[in-house]
């Protein structure tokens, strides 16, 4: 990795050394020195922090050209409003989201943090209505079949025995309402992808220790930024879970065998808006002081 210090510009402030977590930049007798370039994880911090543009990093895209930070644009009240007023949207207008808009949302998500700056988060964007409908039907059918089994003698017995386990309890809740869901599904309601025009699968190479974290941080940014753009999203946990087990779904969504989806999001223009924000429990926080 070619990382250099322009000694004519350098003011020896050592911020590059202080901000380099991997140890590329070291203080060698008062001179900031890129002594271990092989340790660089391309986080760009050294270039971003240098107040006098003295760092030349040839390993970064565009030779490390970065945009200046404008702190004036950071408004905590606006940010709070975005986070507090984002809702899971389960009814969408029949209006397409442009490719440019989806691209701009994913483009922002790539600035989300990833462990060791791995940047291994990938996206599959589905807008084909046939694929969306097939995915939805497949997941719902699984629920219907589970419901049939739940109503069988063995299903009932097992649900009774394991009923106190969190996930089984939650599933029982859905099963108890399944008659209603099936009826409304017959009338055309899409309980899985909510008839959204876009599905975004956020995935990482399988087996990556922080794949779940990296994908879900990116997913959060997608949800918040989409909301700020006037779009709505909904996280589809049912699909994320099913993609772990259903070969048919993985094939339909062209998900490679060595990739795992950790977040599934639908996206579109909300059919209606919420007048108020929502109530949430107070945080259960333990302070060790
Ligand atoms: C990991 C995760 C999985 C979810 N799965 C689904 C889902 O499969 N279908 C759905 O309609 N909503 C799903 N949701 C949305 C939640 O139900 C929703 O976030 C919650 O009720 C709070 O509402 P809000 O998002 O409007 O604040 C999921 C949310 C998360 C974070």
DSSP helical segment count? 11
Count of β-strands? 8
Task: Give the mean pLDDT.
Answer: 95
Q: What gap, in angstroms, lies between the N and C termini?
A: 43 Å
Which range best describes the helical content: under 10%, 10-25%, 25-40%, 40-55%, 55-70% or over 70%? 25-40%
Q: Compute the CA-based radius of gyration.
A: 24 Å
What share of residues are in beta strands?
Answer: 5-15%
Give the CATH topology of one domain: NADH Oxidase
In words, what does this structure look like?
By secondary structure, the protein is an alpha+beta fold. 40% of the residues lie in helices and 14% in strands. Among the domains are: 3-64, Alpha-Beta Plaits; 77-129 and 192-268, NADH Oxidase. It has helices at residues 15-19, 45-49, 76-85, 99-109, 129-150, 153-161, 166-176, 178-186, 211-228, 237-245, 247-252, and strands spanning 3-5, 25-28, 31-34, 55-57, 122-126, 198-205, 232-235, 259-268. Strands 5-6-8-7 form a 4-stranded antiparallel β-sheet, sandwiched between helices. β2 and β3 (31-34) form a beta hairpin. α4 (99-109) packs across α9. The radius of gyration is 24 Å and the shape is elongated.
What does this entry show, briefly?
The chain has 289 residues and is α+β, with helices and mostly antiparallel strands.
Key structural traits:
8 strands, NADH Oxidase, 11 helices, Alpha-Beta Plaits, four-stranded antiparallel β-sheet, binds flavin mononucleotide, alpha+beta, 289 residues, two-stranded antiparallel sheet, elongated
């Amino acid at each position: 990795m070619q990382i250099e210090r322009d000694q004519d510009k350098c003011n020896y402030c050592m911020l590059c050394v202080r901000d380099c977590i991997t140890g590329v930049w070291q203080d060698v007798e008062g001179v900031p020195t890129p002594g271990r370039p092989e340790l660089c994880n391309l986080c760009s911090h050294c270039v971003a922090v240098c107040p006098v543009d003295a760092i030349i990093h040839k390993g970064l895209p565009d030779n490390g050209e970065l945009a200046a930070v404008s702190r004036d644009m950071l408004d905590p009240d606006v940010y709070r409003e975005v986070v507090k007023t984002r809702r899971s949207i389960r009814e969408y207008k029949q209006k397409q989201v442009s490719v440019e808009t989806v691209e701009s949302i994913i483009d922002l998500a790539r600035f989300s943090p990833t462990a060791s700056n791995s940047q291994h988060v990938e996206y599959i964007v589905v807008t084909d209505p046939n694929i969306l409908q097939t995915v939805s039907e497949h997941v719902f059918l699984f629920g219907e079949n589970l419901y049939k089994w739940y109503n069988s003698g063995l299903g009932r017995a097992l649900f009774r025995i394991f009923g106190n386990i969190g996930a089984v309890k939650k599933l029982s809740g859905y099963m108890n309402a399944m008659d209603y869901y099936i009826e409304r599904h017959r009338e055309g309601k899409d309980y899985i992808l909510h008839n959204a025009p876009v599905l975004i699968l956020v995935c990482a190479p399988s087996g990556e220790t922080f794949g779940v974290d990296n994908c879900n941080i990116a997913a959060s940014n997608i949800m918040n930024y989409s909301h700020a753009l006037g779009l709505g999203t909904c996280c589809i946990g049912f699909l994320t879970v099913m993609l772990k087990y259903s070969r048919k779904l993985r094939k339909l969504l062209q998900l490679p065998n060595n990739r795992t989806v950790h977040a599934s999001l639908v996206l579109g223009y909300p059919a209606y808006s919420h007048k108020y924000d929502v109530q949430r429990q107070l945080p259960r926080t333990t302070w060790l002081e």
